[in-house]
């Protein structure tokens, strides 16, 4: 049977909000779509029981070499892990005002719902925090079916999307869930990059593995428009009017640099950075990402 996928661009905010059952169905379809062709758990490699390093010995799997230590000590070390356990997954989703632009919130909600569905089917405990300028919703990690519906309802219900201009709330979220696990951060990251770096360092201080999903619209990523355009800052309400052709090259270069800076922050902390455009089918984005991960482990 062919699985049909509903992309974010096919849902309006009113259709998504309040549709908990529909969101559950979408999450199931997304997971079925991107799991096709993967032969092992997409969360493989996210061990929550890192034990120690030891020196490399002939025959060790090269995939477990810590190349950062090699750069500092000019000797090879491999990572050792205790027996694998179920992962505690915590979804951290930006619900600020800028996320309502052109399907970004629909994309983020469906992404969180899909990853939550995947974790639940692997019998992992899942928690979630929605944030803007402060914490909007916080649900502790549990693994029950009722809890899964509670998470979906929190994503689907109508809500305010307050303005948010800094990432300081992420430090509060880090303190709320210090138990070591996998943190999935979904945002458009309209924050100073240095604040994002500090927040990621805070999460990593507790030994968490992380995935960062950077959600942008195609307009934000590529600016595929011409003529006179009006830009409105969704957080502050500030507007400017300009000719697209006059600023396109500089605009695209600035976005590329911004994404490169965020990716470098993630690389410095040895975590994954995934750029997602809001009109890209999530089956495609997730399959590509997890295919890479499955080949590494």
> Can you count the helices?
10
Which superfamily, in CATH terms, is the homologous superfamily of the largest domain? von Willebrand factor, type A domain
Query: What general outline do the C-alpha atoms trace?
Result: globular
- Cα(first) to Cα(last) distance is 30 Å
- The tally of structural domains comes to 2
Q: Could you name the ranges where pLDDT drops below 50 across 5 or more consecutive residues?
A: 1-18
- CATH architecture level-2 label of the largest domain: 3-Layer(aba) Sandwich
Helix proportion: 40-55%
Rg: 20 Å
**Strand-pairing-aware structural class:** alpha/beta
Nearest-integer average pLDDT: 80
Following the backbone from N to C, one meets helices and strands in this order, namely HHEHEEHEEHHEHEHEEHEH
For the record, the CATH class of the largest domain is Alpha Beta
> What is the third-level CATH name, the topology of the largest domain?
Rossmann fold
Could you give the count of β-strands?
10
The strand order across the widest sheet is 5-4-3-6-7-10
Share in β-strands: 15-25%
Major beta sheet summary: 6 strands, mixed
């Amino acid at each position: 049977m062919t699985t049909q996928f509903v992309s974010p661009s096919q849902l309006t905010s009113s259709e998504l909000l309040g549709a908990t059952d529909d969101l559950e169905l979408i999450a199931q379809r997304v997971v079925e779509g991107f799991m096709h062709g993967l032969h092992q758990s997409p969360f493989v490699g996210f061990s929550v029981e890192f034990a120690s390093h030891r020196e490399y010995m002939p025959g060790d799997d090269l995939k477990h070499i810590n190349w950062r230590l090699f750069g500092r000590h000019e000797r090879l070390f491999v990572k050792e892990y205790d027996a694998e356990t179920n992962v505690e997954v915590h979804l951290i989703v930006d619900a600020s005002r800028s996320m309502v632009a052109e399907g970004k919130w629909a994309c983020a909600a469906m992404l969180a719902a899909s990853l939550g569905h995947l974790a639940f089917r692997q019998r992992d405990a899942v928690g979630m925090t929605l944030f803007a300028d402060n914490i909007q919703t916080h649900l502790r990690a549990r693994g029950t079916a009722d809890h899964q519906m509670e998470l979906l309802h929190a994503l689907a219900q109508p809500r305010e999307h307050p303005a948010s201009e800094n990432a300081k709330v992420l430090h509060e979220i880090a303190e709320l869930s210090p138990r070591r696990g996998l943190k999935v951060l979904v945002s458009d990251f309209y924050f100073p990059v240095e604040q994002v770096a500090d927040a990621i360092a805070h999460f990593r201080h507790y030994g968490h593995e992380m995935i960062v999903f950077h959600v942008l619209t195609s307009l934000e990523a590529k600016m595929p428009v011409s003529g006179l355009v009006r830009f409105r800052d969704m957080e502050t309400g500030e507007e400017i009017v300009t000719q697209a052709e006059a600023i396109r090259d500089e605009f695209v270069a600035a976005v590329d640099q911004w994404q490169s800076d965020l990716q470098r922050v993630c690389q410095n902390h040895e975590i994954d950075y995934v750029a997602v455009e809001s009109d890209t089918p999530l089956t495609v984005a997730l399959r590509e990402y997890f295919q890479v991960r499955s080949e590494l482990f």
